User: Fold these one by one.
Assistant:
Number 1:
Amino acid sequence: MNNWQKSTFSGNSHECVEVRTLDGVVEVRESDTGDVVIRTTPRKFAAFLKGARAGEFDHHGDFSA
């Protein structure tokens, strides 16, 4: 997968999180600052997603929107 995938929660907004897998590495970026890319392993990204789904990081977000 070389193309960036935008989160469906972003809708038509330009403020969105995008992710892709390139050469076995998962890359994450914000669409409005595409030059800043976080790289991690698929295993670590899966652990992050598991924690996010469980609400482990909810206290960091602003859910008023």
Number 2:
Amino acid sequence: MSAAGTSEEIVFGTDGWRGIIARDFTFANVRKVTRAIAAYLETAYSKDKPVLIAYDPRFLADQFSQTAAEVLVDLGWTVKMTDRDCPTPVIAYNARHLNTAGALMFTASHNPAPYCGIKYIPDYAGPATPEITDTIVANIAKASDEPPSGKNTDKISIFDPKPAYLEFLYTLLDVDTIRKAKLKVKYDALYSTSRGYLDLVLDHCGCETESFHTWRDVLFGGGMPEPKGEMLVELVEAVKKDNADLGLATDGDADRFGIVDEKGNVLTPNTILLLLAKHLLQNKGKKGAIVRTVATTHLLDNLAEKYGLTLYETAVGFKYVGEKMRETDVLIGGEESGGLSILGHIPEKDGILADMLVAEAVAFAGKPLSQLVEEVIAEAGGPLYNNRLDLHLTEAHKAAVLDTYLKNPPTEVAGIQVKEVGRKDGIKLYLEDGGWVLLRPSGTEPLIRVYMETNSPEKLQKVGQEMQAKIDKLAPVAA
């Protein structure tokens, strides 16, 4: 069956195209998108460079990958496929290490089990920038979804991406210091690609490790492969029960991290970015800029100012953080949704590295993780409190909200004066007391996200209530 009529549903978001398996994410559409990517490759690389293909543990992801490989070799490319499901940062590293034309990664990251996705990772080992994805999307309309001829399958080979990645990873860690600390660690793989990677690294670094959910389950145990509180209940209990030093997890493709302290608190990505920025500065003597997205905590700004570092604010999406990492020396770059990378690493988020850096920070300090967190928050002038509202609106309501805030942004929120309005990504209201509010529309659904940060829980509640009320009032009156 032709999928030509469904190409308008193939939308590349902040990190590739995702869809529901068998409804949107079909073999026909995979062939179509692969040919659109191949048309871009023709303009950027010579065919003597291989294309890598990897996939996460999702249902049919390995077979979608095989289909993409057959399409590419039919078009004259050489393909190297991973020998099993693979973390995104691992295939990204190999895309650079093996001098390739980039990689195709089949993943829907932290999305629920019915989803699959595909993203193209260029040879610089970071997310494709908008000009690349815009070219690929423009190619989709004229790309065929026909099955490949079946020729040239001898140009598909299988390789193991693990050894080269691990060898590189160990150059970024002080393995000896971690070994001396003899940390007790609980690790929840959440059925993700990090199994067989993070547990191996923890063992190599001399940690006493107990691991959970380290097998492939395409239903992710009935939950989501997202390292947030509701998914980490078992990990939290294990940490508390056994007096472990910390608990670690990753999302489905291991590019995002989840951290539990020794008290069983699930730490936010904002907190981990702050903690690791200080660790890299104080314990490892690193220097460079700090890069964060518009939706990420301003405690990073305070820390950057204290240490005389440049702070860059980008649009949401790690591709923008990664782009800045390719332009200048970046100590740490990250986003509130759980991705980070550091100086000397690839410009791609890496949950395995992030988890191990937290273990390294604890090993260096010889203090409980909760204490390290308290100290760095105080040093950065915190605490600050964050919240996010996900408002499901009609398209008309969404348009009315954006039009109002773009043309006539408020001069105060919950009695706090707005000192500046930013339009880098959505509308960001910088408040006089150091807090902020960000309204950001979803590009693919009738949803507006409202992020906010203030210096007290009471203020946070007031800001949230007022933003909700103001947005509710902008709902169009039904005819």
